[in-house]
Write a structure and sequence with these properties.
Layout lengths: L5 E4 L37 E15 L4 E15 L5 E18 L2 E22 L1 H4 L10 H5 L9 E10 L14 E13 L3 E10 L7 E13 L2 E11 L5 E13 L2 E10 L5 E14 L11 H17 L5
Length: 321
């Protein structure tokens, strides 16, 4: 099972240790939780996947002299549609903020509660190195040559994402003048490296048609310590005239069954306008309706696997007398 977290990311729980399957569908769930990035690979055709969690945190703004309690939930509904390279998704969050502002000698509370984000989008894999780049044949005479670093391993899988943010007109999380429907696009890359490491990068351009667009970069490194237990480290940079920040996340995920994953995580930022921290926990569940075994690999090894499978099927058919 070669492509696990996606996405998860991003967070991708890597159960591909020792396996080299080259279809997007994997035998174990491929979740983006608990990071903020998306992995390059889809869940696979016929797969319906729900990823959801709850989070709690605080924002303390040193200039505005405000303290905010944050309680929310995020969710993602993913579906592999038509073919392996395509995935459609609904990604969003609902949040309640209790902001305390010091007025005189008293702290006055202001409460905000609504959907903070909702984005309907589609992701499509445009390049998979396992399909187009033939692996090097093993050197039978040199162990050192086989262990040598290969530059081609730096070439990632690449996906493109396009979606639409939508909200109601009186949503308090919209800034004044912001439209109810705005575009969101992203470029997503993913490297699956030996040693059970996955590197996912997202470059996101959000609300480009508005007066205050947002540009976000996310880098997520995931490592599977065992076939069922993995951890991740993530950096997110946000640039906007409304809100800019540098955020780090870390956490772990545990694969309970092939279709069920649990996770916990936390985040911190690097400024005091506001100073932010959050903790989160979540679950990912897959309804696996995938039927057809599809290969995206045109490599030499992929061709050998297909031929072996066809031969095995022929041998299982009894000859007619």
């Amino acid at each position: 099972m070669k492509y696990l977290h996606s996405c998860i990311p991003t967070f991708i729980l890597l159960s591909f240790i020792g396996f080299t399957a080259n279809a997007q569908y994997t035998e174990t769930i491929n979740s983006n939780r608990p990071g903020a990035s998306q992995g390059a690979f889809s869940v696979g055709t016929g797969v319906i996947q729900l990823e959801a969690g709850a989070y709690y945190g605080k924002d303390d703004h040193s200039l505005l002299q405000t303290n905010t309690d944050i309680l929310g939930g995020d969710y993602s509904l993913r579906y592999g549609l038509f073919f392996e390279a395509l995935e459609i998704s609904l990604i969003g969050s609902f949040e309640e903020n209790k902001k305390f502002i010091k007025i005189g000698a008293s702290d006055v509370e202001f409460k905000t509660r609504n959907f903070k984000t909702n984005t309907l989008g589609a992701k499509y894999l445009i390049f998979d190195p396992s399909r187009t780049i033939k692996p090097d044949a093993p050197n039978l005479y040199s162990w050192k040559a086989n262990q040598k670093f290969k530059w081609k391993t730096l070439i990632p899988a690449v996906s493109v994402y396009a979606g639409a943010n939508f909200s109601v007109a009186d949503n308090p999380y919209l800034y004044e003048g912001e439209k109810q429907v705005t575009p969101k696009i992203a470029i997503i890359t993913q490297n699956n490296w030996s040693g059970s490491y996955v590197l996912v990068m997202n470059l996101i351009l959000d609300k480009l048609t508005e007066d205050f667009p947002t540009y976000t970069g996310i880098v997520t490194l995931t490592h599977a310590f065992t076939p069922t237990f993995a951890g991740f480290l993530e950096y997110q940079g946000i640039i906007s005239d409304i809100y800019s920040d540098d955020i780090v996340r870390t956490g772990v995920a545990y694969l309970l069954t092939d279709n069920l994953q649990f996770d916990i995580s936390g985040l911190l930022n690097f400024k005091n306008t506001p100073d932010k921290w959050q903790v989160a926990a979540g679950v990912s569940y897959r309804l696996d309706l995938h039927k057809k075994e599809e290969y995206l690999d045109d490599s030499y090894e992929g061709d050998r696997r297909r031929k072996r499978t066809e031969k095995q099927k022929e041998e299982e058919i009894p000859e007619e007398n």
